[in-house]
Structure formats: C-alpha cells, structure tokens
Amino acid sequence: MLYENLLANVPELEILHTQKFRWLVTGAAGFIGSNLVEALLCLNQCKHENIKSATRINPGNFTLINGSINDFETCKLATQNIDFVLHHAALISVPESLAQPQNYHATNAQGFANILEAARANHAKRIMYASSSAVYGDSPEIPKLEASLSFNFNPENFLSTYALTKYMNELSAKFYSNIYGLECVGFRYFNVFGQRQDPSGAYAAVISKWVDCVKNSEVPVIFGDGKATRDFCSVQNIVLANLLAALAPNVSGKVFNIGCGIETSLSELLRMIYKIFAPAQELRVNYESPRAGDILRSCADISLARKYLHYEPIVSLETGLEFLKDCSNEELGVLVDLITDKGSLTQLMTNTKVYSENYPNHRAYVDLIQNEIIECSDFALCFIIIKGFSLAPFPGIYRYQKRSFFADMFLDGIHKMI
Question: Among candidates 90, 95, 111, 110, which has minimal Cα distance to 187?
C-alpha cells in the first residue's frame, strides 16, 4: 500500500507502529481527510470518529458520524475519548467564498470554534488544523515566511473570505493554546493535489481539473497569462506533516508552512501534465482573465517545519503526477458486491443495475434498488472499486478506488465473512 511504504522509514513515526491512539478526522470523506484515514489505517491506528455531511466510508474499525461541524453537540460527541484531532472539514473555494461569505464564516470560522471548544471540554491531547497559504494574500515576499504575516500584518492583503476565515482559525487556535492550554498546531497548505481530488465543478483545483481535461482531449483553461506560480504539494506530504505534528514536542500554538518549497508556473505545470498524461497530444490551452482573489506568486519557506517537525517532502510534484497517472491508467472497473446478514455475496445483484458511461470526466454511475437493500439486512455493505475519480454520491454506497487500501481491506473482510 502507498502509505505503508512511504511512512515505513520515518523514525519520528515509529511509535505509531507500536502504540495506538484515538483520532478524530473531520472532513474524512473529503480529499485530504480520506488520505489521512488511509494512512492511519495503514499504521493500524484506532481511527475513532469522522464528521462529514455526506456518508463516505465505514470500514469497521472506526465510527462514522454523519454530521456537521456546525452542530456543537455533534462535535462534543465526536471528540469524546479522543487523543488527536485532525481538522480538515471546511469550505475551500476562493472564488465561491467571495460569492457566499456567510456560508464560509459559518462553516470555517464557527465550525472550527465548535471543534476547539468540544476538544477542550473533552480533554483532547492536541488539534492539528488546516489553515492555508491564502492567508498571505498578495504579499510580494517569496518564499512566504510564517513570521512575516505576524510582523507585517495588513488586513488589505486578504483577497477572499476563505483566506480571512483561515486566519481567524489561526487566531482562535492561538487563543485556545494560550488561555486554555489546548495544544493546537496549524498548517498553511500550499496547493495540495493528489488521489481522490474531485476534478468537477467550477472551483476544482487546477491539477485535478487539467488532468481530467487532458485525458478527455479537452482544452485546459489558464486564468491569466500562465506566469502565475504556485508551490504544488502532493497530498502524501500533507499526511506526513499531520502525523509528525501530532507527535512533535514544543509545537503548541505554532503554524507551519507545508509545501515543497519549489515555485512552478502554471504554464510549466501544464507542460508537465501533457508530458505525463498525454505525450502524443499537442499542447492546447485557452487563456481567460484572472479570477478575483487569485494571487500572482506563491511558494513556501518550509524551514520552520523542518526545524520543529523534522518535515521533509517525500513526494515531489513530478512523482505526485506519476502517482496520478498510475491511478488513471488502470482499466476503469466497477465492482458492486453486497454482504447480507447471512454473509452471502451478490444476493441482490439481480436487483441491482450497474452501468458505466463515458462522460467527460469518466464517471461511473450505479443505480441501486435502495429499498430492497435496506429491507434485506441490518448489515448490508455495498461498495464500488473504481480507478480514477470519486463517484457522485448515492445513498448507501461506499466509493473506493481500484487497487487501493479500501479494496484490499474490504476484500479481506469479505473472504473472512464467507
């Protein structure tokens, strides 16, 4: 498994191979959250609760809470008997935040306040939370230094409601660390990409969207002239930073840049994507006007994370793109199996219609006779193994990627049950 191999030789994480902790991952159905879950399970950690508004996964050795961080009672329930909180539930689009500021304040600011207070009340050991490099705004400093925002704070640098709410999170976490003694560690993530990142929608992240376009022979769009730069960071590095911060000493109240420390232009990125995903295709691109809230240059100084967390990126931009290529090049497959209370497989397959269609983003859709599944058993597991992209949500369906840890884990479970 990917994380098992990547994290096997990190000395700072050795304790996770021998000692189990209880973890809360908020947003565990999402992009970063699901990767955190995968890593924790690969390390045989006892994953406890997971708050998300949409059902995603429930592999048995953790509890799924189908709730919202906007509900304080749910947060109190989720943080009971928890050692470490990995907080990644949030609204994440810069353009959308300008159009829906109230929603972003309610979820990103108040939702995090609920998690902080619930964790304090339940005596959690430490909270790791997602901030963002967006808090630097249009500051001309390259690379970005954590201390510069404190010394040269200027409210005019904030270009979006998203950035503002993330900085509010940092202030709230610092307050709880100083006043209540709740250990909090923040991460200013720089342009994260990787497996299970959704390429659909107007606000999709650039790499997942461009990969999707190139694979479907569509023309990618660059907002601006292509000279804007970002520090693209594979999600495996994000997982590593979270685990290191959970165990590192003397980090409470601190905020760290998490990236690779390498500046890449959008034009250079697009060339890399064509080279890796479609070497036979001619590079095509449509240029459109820059979007509101977008910044011109971004690159992380990660020296503070190196010093306190012993963080070192384990996956480069090119390697991360190759990981995505390995995912997308496998044959698109859908496996739907049902385990009933009698332990029989495919009992309801005659009542289950499965079909795949080549939509622009190669989605597979499954139409299940939901009522019959519910009536059949009090324990019914239905899952889809698919390579490439996550599926549109359907009630009662757990979606996983082919040849992933999910597939291995569930197939092992099936064999044991029958």
Answer: 90
Is the C-alpha dihedral spanning 279, 282, 285, 286 positive or negative? negative
Of the candidates 54, 400, 354, the one whose C-alpha atom is nearest the C-alpha of residue 411 is 400
SS3 at position 36: helix
Determine the residue type at 172. S
Distance CA 418, CA 415 (A): 5
Using only the alpha carbons of the chain, give its radius of gyration. 21
CA 171 to chain CA mean position, Å: 23
Residue 3: partners with Cβ closer than 8 Å, 6 or more residues away: 35, 38, 39, 42, 43, 236, 239, 405
Q: H/E element holding 126? A: strand 126-130
Tokens linked to 242? 């979270």
Among 68, 171, 173, CA closest to 111: 68
Specify whether the CB–CB gap between 176 and 182 falls below 8 A.
Answer: yes
List CB contacts of 354: < 8 A, sequence separation 6 or more: 334, 336, 366, 367
Continuous segment of H or E residues that includes residue 414: helix 405-417
- What single DSSP character describes residue 224? S
pLDDT tens over the chain, length 418 residues:
688 888 988 999 999 989 999 999 999 888 899 899 889 988 888 654 455 433 334 345 677 788 899 999 999 999 999 999 999 999 988 889 999 999 999 999 999 999 999 999 999 999 999 999 999 987 888 999 998 876 566 677 788 999 999 999 999 999 999 999 999 999 999 999 998 888 876 556 899 999 999 999 999 999 999 999 999 999 999 999 999 999 999 999 999 999 999 999 999 999 999 999 999 999 999 999 998 778 889 999 999 999 999 999 999 999 999 998 876 543 233 223 322 333 333 333 333 333 233 323 333 333 332 333 333 222 223 333 222 223 323 223 333 333 333 334 333 333 333 2
Count Cβ neighbours within 10 Å for each residue of 294-318 and write b for 16 or more, e otherwise: bbebbbbbbebbeebbebebebebe
Amino acid at residue number 383: F
DSSP-derived 3-state class of residue 20: coil
List the structure tokens of 53: 């508004």
Positive or negative, the CA dihedral 40, 44, 49, 55 is positive
